[in-house]
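Milestone M4 deliverable, item 7.
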Amino acid sequence: MKNGLLTIPDDGALAPVLGGAIQSRTVLHEWPLSRVERITGEDGHTAILKTQLTSASAERAFLRKVRDPALPVPIADGVSGDCDWMLLPDYGSACEDWSGFTNEAIRERVRELCRIIARLDGDAPVFFDLATPEKLADACRSILPTLADAGWSEDARAGLLGWAEGEAKVCFESPAALLHGDMKGENVIHAAGGEILLDWQRPIRGPEPLEEELALLLAGRESRGPFARLAAFTLGYWYAWAYRTCLPYPFVLVMAGKYLRGAMEDR
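Output delivered:
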C-alpha cells in the first residue's frame, strides 16, 4: 500500500502476524517519513504498527540489536518496499507531560533517563555519529553544498565551518555516549514494568550534555552555552541531510537554515 514515500503493509500482510483478520486501523501520527497506526484484530486486541522509510531511521535495527526492559520489544517486524515496519505493543497513552516543567526540571528528568540509556550502550546502531570534533567537522562540510543551494553566502558557510572546527571543540571535553536524540515527555511511557523509551529513529553518538540541550530545544525552550549551539547544529544538520536525501521540500530547507543559524549565534 503506497502512501507518498512510504510503502505500508496491507491487511493481508499483517493478518498472519496477528493470527486473524484486522478489524480496524487508526492513524495516530503521520508525516512523510513515517506513519503510526493502532491495529485492532478481530479478537479486539490492539497493537501499534510503525512504518518508516528505511534510509531515514535506525529504529528497526536498533530494537533488533538492543534488548532492555526500558525498550519496546517488537511483536514482529519486516520490510515493505523501501520501508521498515514494526508491530509494537500498545502501551496506550500513559506518557509523561513536561509542558509544566522548568528548564532545570527538564534537565534533571533527562539526566535520569540518560542513566537508563547508558546501560543500552555498546555497539548499538546510531543514525548520526557526532562523537568527536573530527566527525562534527566532517558532518558540517557535508552539508555546505546544501546551504549554498539555500542561498547562504560563502562567508556564512565559512563561519559555520569555523565554529565546527573551532569553538565547538569545547563540547568534546565531555565524554561521548549513546543519546536518544528526540527526548521529550511523549516518548516516555509508563507501563507495568516501569518506563519505556519510545521512538529510536535517530539515535546519536555524541557528548553526554547534548541530550539535555536537544530536549530543551525540542521543547521550545531558550538555552545558552556551547551545548545549546551544538544542539541547534544537530537539528539543523538533520534537516539539511533530509533535504538532500529524501525530503527536497522548501520547508525542510527553511528549518535547516533556522537551526544552523542558531549554531552560529553567540549564546
